[in-house]
Amino acid sequence: MLNYVADLDSVFHALADPGRRLMLERLDQGPTSVSELGKSLPMSLAAVVQHVQILEASGLVRTQKRGRTRMCSLNPAPLRSAERWISERRAFVERRLDRLGQYLAEHTETTETIVTSDLPTNAGQSGLHPLKEENS
């Protein structure tokens, strides 16, 4: 369980940066070199390498050295774990909201009946608001 949480933390940390998300989107198209990943981003090659290392540490990216070139490829498994975690939270919140909606629907009808039945029959005739107390 602790390892699962650490892995999720690492994935969410990696996804928190817009540059890293752009790198992942590029890797959706297929493997590419680190230098190619950096061409479309406004950062130095050294910064790209650091971002790739974070993506690799999270498990989202795999790298492999081919001669003098480091190739990167997307590993979708950690994304599925994050998606599963988000789906579980969404289902929990939706169930709670459904219960709240049911509760409000049941109690709104009851409350409306109680409030209208408690009003005096001549409430509108005196000029006083039926739910406010007199301060005289």
β-strand number: 3
Class by SSE composition: mainly alpha
Q: Rounded to an integer, what's the Rg over CA atoms?
A: 29 Å
Low-confidence stretches: none
- Output the helix-strand order: HHEHHEEH
User: On the 0-100 scale, what is the average pLDDT?
Assistant: 85
Q: Could you name the CATH topology of the domain at 2-76?
A: Arc Repressor Mutant, subunit A
CATH class of the domain at 2-76: Mainly Alpha
Key structural traits:
3 strands; Arc Repressor Mutant, subunit A; elongated; 136 residues; three-stranded antiparallel beta sheet; mainly alpha; 10% strand
Provide an overview of this structure:
The chain has 136 residues and is mainly alpha-helical. The protein has a domain at 2-76: Winged helix-like DNA-binding domain superfamily/Winged helix DNA-binding domain (Arc Repressor Mutant, subunit A), CATH 1.10.10. It has 5 helices and 3 strands; from the N terminus they run H-H-E-H-H-E-E-H. Strands 1-3-2 form a 3-stranded antiparallel β-sheet. Helix 1 packs across helix 5.
